Amino acid sequence: MRKTNNNHGSDMLDEYDFSSGVRGKYAQRYEEGCNVVVLDPDLAEKEPGEPSEAIKHRVQAARVVQLQRFSQQEQMFANSQMETQDLHNYCQLDRTSTELLKSAMEKLGLSARAYDRILKVSRTIADLENAVRIEPHHLSEAIQYRSLDRQMWLQ
């Protein structure tokens, strides 16, 4: 973080000093309890993100995979439309992934609906990587998203 001359002796930029109330574009995040952190520009240069054009191509390729997967299904075009029976057909897990999901369900107290959502998101993450099977790291990422989603709703 960059230091500025504020009266609070902190490392925060003046625009992030909310001691006199919150206004503008940061008000909603502040109310939700999200932290806003300013990163040094040097950090962004060291780890450039994936270019938007590359992301666009990965998403388009994943959509093609899903359209092919569901080509024999009526009114089903995307992973989000899968029902429980479809999950058994298209979201098969290996033993490690099954144990990972079981553990997450128990520790996080997730519902059957959450289980289905995690599988759908895992399938989509795998599609974005052009992976045939759902791997443990796909499942872990989906579980993290579900955990974040729950935290946002519980606040």
Q: What keyword list fits this structure?
A:
155 residues, mainly alpha
Secondary structure layout:
Elements: H1 27-32, H2 41-46, H3 52-69, H4 84-90, H5 95-108, H6 112-128, H7 136-154
Helix pairs in contact: 5-7, 6-7
Can you tell me the number of structural domains? 2
CA-based shape: globular
Return the average pLDDT rounded to an integer: 81
What value does the Rg take, in angstroms? 21 Å
Please report which band the strand proportion falls in: under 5%, 5-15%, 15-25%, 25-35%, 35-45% or over 45%.
under 5%
Number of strands: 0
> Number of helical runs?
7
N-to-C SSE string, H for helix and E for strand: HHHHHHH
Commentary on this structure:
The protein is mainly α. The chain folds into two domains: 1-49, no CATH class; 52-154, no CATH class. It has helices at 27-32, 41-46, 52-69, 84-90, 95-108, 112-128, 136-154. The two termini are 27 Å apart.
